[in-house]
Structure formats: structure tokens, C-alpha cells
Amino acid sequence: MKECMDKREEMKGSLQIKLGTVTRLVFKKMNSELTLEGIPVMAEQVPVLMVVYFKENAITQQDIANILQKDKSGILRSVQTLQKDGFLKIESDIEDKRKNLISLTTSGKFVCEKIQALAMTFNDQIMEHFSEEERKLFLSFLDRVAAIIEK
Fold first, then answer.
1. Does domain 41-150 match CATH 2.60.120.280?
2. Domain named HTH marR-type: which ranges (predicted)?
């Protein structure tokens, strides 16, 4: 019985649980901030918008899926919702009619700029609780974890 409790406690302190908790809290806070700002986008859709925002030219749904390492059907749902809401434009690729090219509308660009400002403010609010050295160390640990996982 004691061994089972030790395993539970060990699992509670695991990387997966800790990162999962932080991710849920960040998304919850971001959704709250987006709502307060009157931005009709869910935090889960933000990565799709931002991938398109940071690309110079239109991008395919498959490219978005590859960059975000998500399945194409999930990206399709987000893209369609964001198109319906007026933030993304979907056009057929002239060279390959099977592909859709995704780009931002004027409203999409405006919303991305507001989201970027919100994200930076949120980042600053969290990071102000750490010294400069702690921030650098924390971010380097996250980079190292990502590199180890990607091996």
C-alpha cells in the first residue's frame, strides 16, 4: 500500500503532470483574457492564427499541421471556425486544387496583434516573479527538455 502511495506522489511530481497543469492554467488564463478583451478566439485556436500571422505568404493546412505537430483534421476544424469568424481566408491553390491556402484577413491581423500584446503582457506578469538569472535558467531548462524529447 505504501509503495502505491509513493508511486502516486512520484507521478504527481512528474514532468507530464506538472507541464499539463501549467498548460491548462495558461490556456484558462488566456481564454479569460481573450474574453475580457472581447476577442472571440479560444486559446486553443491561437497557435493556428499565430502560425499564419508569422508567415510572409499564404500557407497550406498541411503546413500548419506540420508546424504545430497536430493532425490535419483538427487544424481543418480550427481553420474553418476562424474563417467563419472572419479571421482567416481560405483559397484554392492555383497550382494544386487539392490544397487550400490559408491567409489572414484584415480582422485576423488586427486580432493577432492584440493577442500578441496580451501574450507578452501575460509573459511579463509571470516572469516578473523571477530574477533575470532564474528566467534564463528556466527557459534554458524548457529548451533542453524540448531538445531531449525531439531526439
1. no
2. 12-147
Give residue 92's pLDDT: 85
State how far the alpha carbon of 29 is from the alpha carbons of 23, 100, 129, in Å. Answer: 10, 32, 17
Phi, psi of 101 (to 5 degrees): -100, 130
CB 113 within 8 Å of CB 125: no
Q: For residue range 31-67, what is the model confidence (pLDDT) as tens digits?
A: 999 999 999 999 999 999 999 999 988 999 999 999 9
Q: Write down the pLDDT at residue 144.
A: 95
What is the full DSSP assignment across 43-109?
Answer: GGGHHHHHHHHH-SS-EEHHHHHHHHT--HHHHHHHHHHHHHTTSEEEEE-SS-TT-EEEEE-HHHH
- Residues 103/89, Cβ–Cβ less than 8 Å: yes
